[in-house]
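Single Protein Entry

Contents — chain, fold
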Amino acid sequence: MVVAWGLRTWTVLKTLLGTLGFGITLLIWPFV
């Protein structure tokens, strides 16, 4: 149970970080 919860939390964190990184890339792209 704990392993499944940790795996789900890790997946959510990776998704959030990926989305955040994508947004930052879009914001920075016009200035590169």
The chain has a mean pLDDT of 93. Helices lie at 2-28.
